[in-house]
Every structure is written in C-alpha cells, then in structure tokens.
Fold this protein.
Amino acid sequence: MSAYIIRRVLYAIPILIGVNLITFVLFFVVNTPDDMARMQLGAKRVTPEAIERWKVQHGYDKPLLWNASAGGMATLTDTIFYEKSVRLFAFDFGNADDGRDIAHEIRSRMGPSLALAVPVFIVGIAVNITFALLMAFFRATYLDFWGVVSCVAMMSISALFYIIGGQYLVSKVWHLVPISGFAGGPDAFKFVVLPVLIGVVSGIGAGSRWYRTIFLEEMSRDYVRTARAKGLRESVVLFRHVLKNGMIPILTGAVVVIPMLFLGSLLMESFFGIPGLGSYTIDAIQSQDFAVVRSMVFLGAVLYIVGLLLTDISYTLVDPRVRLA
Amino acid sequence: MALIYNAAMMVRIVALAAVLAWLAGCGDALWNNPYPTASRADNTLYTAFVERPKRLDPALSYTSDEWDFIAQIYEPPLQYHYLKRPYELIPLTAQTMPTVRYFDAKGREIDSDSPPEKVARSEFEIRIRPGIRFQPHPAFATDAAGKPLYLSLAETEIASRHTLADFPSTGTREVTAEDFVYQIKRLAHPRQTSPIFGHMSQYIEGLRELAEQLRKDNDKIVAAHRERYGAADKGLPWLDLRAYEISGVSVVDRYTYRIRIKGKYPQFMYWLAMPFFAPIPYEVDQFYAQRGMNEGRNITFDWYPVGTGPYMLTENDPNARMVLERNPNFRGEPYPSQGEPGDAAKGLLRDAGQTMPFIDRVVFSREKEGIPYWNKFLQGYYDRSSIASDNFDQAIQFSVEGLARLTPEMEAKGISLSTSVATSTYYLAFNFFDPVVGGLSDRARKLRQAISIAVDFEEFISIFANGRGIPAMGPIPPGLFGYREGEAGINPVVYDWVGGKPRRKSLEAARALLAQAGYADGRDSKTGQPLVLALDTVARGPGDSSRLEWYRRQFAKLNIHLEVRATDWNRFQEKIRGGNTQMFFLGWNADYPDPENFMFLLYGPQSRAKTQGENAANYQNPEYDRLFARMKNLDNGPERQAIIDQMLRIAREDAPWAFGYHPKDYTLSHQWVYNAKPNQIARNGLKYQRVDPALRAAKREQWNQPVVWPIGLGVLVLIALAAPAVVSYRRRERTTAREAP
C-alpha cells in the first residue's frame, strides 16, 4: 500500500501544477493586474502612477507567463506565474493583497467551518442511512411510497428556503436560537444547532434516496436471501450484511468529501454569520485578490486528492477483496 | 424490533445530550441572545458591518467601511461639528483652527483676499493641544531605566508571541507635532501606496521629492535584504522616516507644525479632518517592522491600529466581530452645546457639556445577509439599522402628503426614524468625445436636453429606491454651499416651477427639442435612419433586468432605440477610461462638504479619457473651466455663490449629465439610543452616542421569550411518524408462515 500511496502523491504533482495554471489563466483573462490595483486602491483619485507603484509592491509588474526580455530560465522564472505559484508547493501561501497572512486566515476560519460541517456530515449520514434502511425494509409498502415522495419533495426545495424558513420559525418566531453569529467553545452550540439541523434536513431527500437505491440493490442479492433462509433477524440482515456490503458506494461519496469539510459552506456560513472558509474564496474573487484565490484553489485541489486517496484506502477496510498495489 | 428499539434509545440519548448542551451553552433566559449573558447590562453599543475592512491604516484606508472603525481611533487635527449644518470644521487635536498665510512668488506675505493667481504658496500652521496621549501599546513600554522593552526583539523572542496580548507590558506617551509630520511622510512610503499620494503630491511641497528619495533608499535596503534572506522573505527592516526631511512640512516646536501648499488650496483644510493626517508614533512603526511580526501572525499596523481617539480596537476579527473599547488615555471631550434649530426639541442637546465618550464598548458583528441583520435589529440585538429594500414596507409607510413615517409595528417598538439626504450625486453621463451625444454643437446639446427630460428620475427613485432620494438639479447635493432651494435652484432645462414645486417638463417639450436636434420622432433627419444610442452599464445577473428594461423604456418614449451594453465592473471602468462609451450611469460621494468637490467633476482638465481625472463625461467648456478655476479658491460668500450659479447655468444648458438624484438615507434607532444624528461627512460619531442598557435589557427580555411548545410538538410529530413503522415492523416480525389448508 505504501508504494501505491507514494505513486498517487507523485501523480498529484502534475495535477496541482495544471490546476494552478488553469486558475492563473482563468483569473487573468478576467482581471488584469491594473484591475487588481484599482480594486485595492479604491475608485477615487487613483493615478496611473499609484497603480504602477502598487503593482511593483505586490509583484504584479512582471510578465504573466513568459518574460521575453529575460534570458535562460529567467524567461520562465521571472514571471508572475512562477513567483506566485512555486511557493504554494511548500504550502507557503504568502499574504493577501490587503497584506494579511493567508495561512493565518485559513487557520482561524477552519475551526468555525468544521464546527458546522462535521456535525452536518456525521448526523446527516446517520440520519440518511437510517431513513434509507427503513424505506428499504418497508419496501413496496405505503411507508416506502410516502418516504420516497417526501424525499422527492425535500430534494425539490431550495436550500435557501430551508435557511430562511428555519431562521424565520426557529429564531424569529419561537426565539429558540440566535438568528446568526458565532462564538468559540461550548457557546458555539447555540449558534450551530439551527444550521446543523437545516443542513441535515435539507440533505435528507437526496441522501436517503441514493442510499435506499444502494440498499435495495443489495437486498435483492443472493447472500441476503441466504441470510434470511438461515433464520437471521431482519435487523441483523440489514446492519451486518446489507449495510456492510453497501458501504463501498457510500464511502465513495462520503470519504471524498471529508477533507473538503475544511472548506466550509458558502450559503450556510453567509446566512448564519459563521466566520468560516466558505466565503473566503468568493470574497477574494469579488475583491480580485489573486493571492487568496490561487491559495484556496490549490488547497481545494490538495484536499480533493487527499479525499480520493482516503476513499481508495477505505475500500480495503470494508472489502477484503480490494488490494491496493 | 431491536432495530427500532436501538434507534429509539439513540434518539433519546441524543435528545437528552442536546438539551443538556443547549442549557449549558445558553445559561440564559433568552435563548436567542447572540451575546454572552454577562454583557446584558453593559454600557455597550451593538451594531453590524457588511463588508470586511481591507485596511486599518490611516495612510491607506479610504472607504467608509474602513473609516467606520478608524475614525473612532485616529484623530486628525480637525473634525466636523456633530450637530451644525451646513457642515462646519472645528478643532479636534488642534488647539485652534489652523492659521493660513499666503505668499507670492517672491516669498512676500500677501493678504488672504489676494487673487488666487498671485498666491505662490500657502502655509498652514497647526498648533495641537498639549497633553494628548496615545492609547496603551507595547511599543511604548519601557523598563525601569526608560529603555524600550519591545523595539529591538530577536526573532526567537517574537516566535512565541502570536497576538499583541502576548506582550504583557504597555505604555503611552504624549503626542507631539513630530507625530503628525511622521504620518505625512508615511503618505510617500515606498512600501505602501497611499490613495491620496498622487493628489497630495500636487499640493504639499516636497512630498514627491521625498517619495523619490525614499524609493531609491528603499531599493538599496530591499536589495541588501534579499541578498541576505532571499527574495521571498517578508521581514524587511524598518525604514525610519525621521531621518528624512520634507521641504514643505516642518516642526516649529513640540506642539506646532507647518505645512506649505503650492498655490492656494483652501480645501486642504477639509483634508486635515481626515484620518490621513492623524498622528502616528514612530515607535509603533518600528515595533511592527521587526522581523517575524507578520510571519503567520498578522501583528501589523493594519491589524492593530494605534491612535489617540476615544476608542481603541481590542478585538479584530473582520470575518466575525470587531470590538472597540474606551481608550483609557483619552483626554475626554465635551458634548456640543450648540446645534441647528430643532436639535434641542429632538433631545440632541440634552447631554450638552457632558464628557464624551458615553459608551464603554462598541461591538460590530459581521452580517453579510440582510435578513438576519434586520431580524436581529427587531429583536433588539442591534441598536441601529438601515432599511433594506426587502424590509422597507415593513418599516416605512408614506402619508397622503408623501411624507415617510414609521409603520405602527415600528412605532409600537418605540423605534425612531432619522433621514438625511446623502452628500452624493448619481447621474447619467454623456461622453463628450462621442460624435452623436458629445460636444458643444447645438444638435448634440438639444439631444442631451431632450434625453434629460425623458429619463424620469422621479420614477426611478420611486421604483428602485423606495422613494429614498430627491431629484438632482445640478451636481451639488443639498446641505452644501452653492445648493439653492426652491425655484431659484431648479434646473430650468428639465423642470418648470408649478404650484410651488418643480415639475418635470412634458414629453412634448422633449420631442420638440429632439426635432430641433434633427432627430424628429427618433429618426435622423439627414439619413432617415432610426436613432440608436448605447448605454454602458454594470450588470451582475437577472436581478438587474428590470433596471435595464426601465432604461430602455425611458428612451423609447422618444422613439430612441437604446442598446444596453451590460458588462462587468472592470470592463466598464476600462471603457470610461478609454472614452469608448456613449452614455453611462455613475455617482460621486463627497470627500468634503465643498462645492468644489462636485463642480470639479465637470472640469475640463480633469477629463477621464485625457488625464485619468474624475471628469468621467469628459465635459469641456472653456467658460465653465475658467469660472471653476476662479471659484475653487474663493471663500464661501456672495461672490462664490454668483460664480457657482453661473457655472450651474452653463452645465444645465450644456447637459453633459442628465442630473439624476441625491439618495436619502433612512436610519432606524431603538428607543434606548440617544444623540443619534445622521452625518454624511464625518465618521467619528460613536463618541457622541449614548445608550440606556437597562431599558435595552428589559425590552430584549420582553421581545424574546422562548416559545417552547414547538419542541414538544416536534417530538410528538416524530413519534407519530415512527409509530406506523414500529407497528408494521412488529407485525412483520410476528408473522408466521401460513398454515396449509
């Protein structure tokens, strides 16, 4: 397995270079260094001289990808792309265009994002699996029928509706939790309970339907019939056999998102005033802060690669037939 | 059965744990209180911010989002009177208003009323109050021998410190004239770009030369540093600005300094009321420049500002919360005892002579979305709020006379409304370099006048601003010198004075002007082709479609086909800079309350396409420019008013803008907030405000009692949903194989 992991890590390097290059090209197709300077300096009384000064101070006064005036390797290295990208591979994110340390920002925002995302993830999976198992257990009955109808209805409703409706009822009308805000430590509970509830409820429809399909497919297999024929209780059949064998598709979807939990949820964090990473990239795109955009895209790509690797490894834990070599 | 039993047990355990954690977390009768219970009776003002401030450095910050914070922390020499209107400058850290002396080209002092062209330079002498002290900060901490404790730390000593609180000792010192001069030099600092450097270097003698010298010396320092530590290293050594002289700025004595200005520039007085000219201690600059301070810590001047004002920033988390607390070293300042008529009746003079600030702590919470912001205000968790369009009907209703008043719901809560017209102007600009709508020809002028009549800004205000605005009659907004009320102030090209108020001219008048311009019924009389005009605008999504459609309808009234070219902000600005537009909407917020700050937007040499100035329409009229050059240096008085009237006549006739509207700000305050008066220019208003924490606590208690029955109902619903499943499960488990008949 070690050789497999090392190989996958080496594969990641060209992928990350490619992601970085695409991010760079897409960003600078829309924003020029002059635009970035104007955004940072404000709309008033900005002189061409001030723009040039800003570009020099922030390292945006060089060619983007190819420095024709330089010689040798400097044609590639004396460019904005090289200077802004190479340090990322050492996880040195540098400073945002407003001067703030990006690593510090990521560290301070990661906690609130996890405080919201981890409970939503864990409780969501538990609730979805339970609900899906129940529907599978009562398959072809009115309980299954109405369960599926409910799932379709819940899938069809926008996440924004759950958020606004939840805030209106639970916070505004019933005064049970704060509408928005965040605090560290145990005080975080009262701020995250509603977003977690909404996150779980809004995910039940899609999650449960998907898991139900997986479980129904498993329940039609011969080993389940054999288990029943042996006289096993239905709960044992479901939990020990169906659930275990249905884990591979569940893990495919679930484990890959675990590292992404760090990146937070844009909508939830925005509406509930949770100071997480969800809106960091969007804010940076709006303020044309390339330093933050490239750092967050790079981090997202790294986490996604890690997630895929963890997924592969998890297969070996739930299915002894899988061997990584 | 075991499945259901286990699930039920699980639900019970989770529910119990949740309730216990909730109770532990809340510990408060008000479950929806977003603040710690212990702060319930604190003398604190609670407010919100939407956009995170990018900078908190007085040499760099130039947006209202940033000034809302730093204007409470930094104190320039002057400030605006809190209550008086028109806006009036008064001393803040200055002991008296600066004295201004004028000199001719030979260096001889001349009278203040000498013609501006004879003034070669002006000299502002500012005497500051003795005894002003900086807020506590580690940069001022000294040992028993008076040696600074934290100004020459080794990198290893910094490594273990992550916030400013990790420096246990603090100190302070008295502000001197040197500190003001140091900040002026910071405007030319080569490692940062002050947004006003370009403008100020045209006026302050020696500022440009200083910048050049600093740049050269800094280049040497940076080169040496990179050789030693590598190009990526961020810990550049401190650039001690005290070692540099600036020819136009000098320290006279411990409390007095002088600034020499090229020519006559009376508006410089307004700049002295901005944070750009607040005192900055060199020690703090030196402290933050130490190697390692910004390595993953954000211990920077931007993050931890240091000022002399009534408040200091004690918590800086721009993603969630910013907290200002009373500066223990603040000298105190008396609340004004004079205001404008009506202020006493509104209770705004009740605290006259009392020492400010009144509030101990100001908590700014970040609210990116309008719905939570508004609801928290209604619950009493924010003390003041503006009104978003979505909530406007809930808060405001209009009387039959068209006056805005609060809805009964707001009145029942004791909320009060204050309104004020912003010192801003929004307009539709015609590019003067465009061959169709631009230029001073009669044909183009009449076309612009016709469009100015047809674009119904009263309707725009009603539809898109909930009636919050007044139509503009010229570039100058109300409240500034030069603005005239009543019939004398209307734009006669667009309005008639009927029944004691302005009335937009009829479409027939517009069509007649269009015909005179050679576009009868929207067709070019020479070619017979329909008139097609282009409007460049910024559009971000489907939400803009109604606005864009409204634009088209305004032009369709004259049978002009409008082609809307929607684009993003960058491209929009680029087109304006290049003069590649025909028409576009734009706005301007006042820097200071002087007509020059609006009239210069039409000054020829400020042409955006030619000089990258602020005249975005590229309007050129030699007579207007001549009058502007005369008007800008005059003191307010009849002569200046007469010139402004003349300039307005020219601008209205030429119609380089369809003068749009001046927005009106509506602010709601709870009954426990006192002394809240809108001020469109100054941002340092927190020190004047007062709250009644006991009343607020009582009202919050009254408005936010938790309603617990939905929890019980929710449990019952879950049981009701689970019951059929349980019954069905049990029935299935007990089912036996059917006996053979």
Q: What stands out?
A: Chain B has three domains: 2-29+708-734, 77-305, 424-665. Residues 709-734 of chain B form the longest helix (26 residues). The two ends of chain B are 30 Å apart (CA to CA). The domain at 424-665 of chain B is CATH 3.10.105.10 (Dipeptide-binding Protein; domain 3).
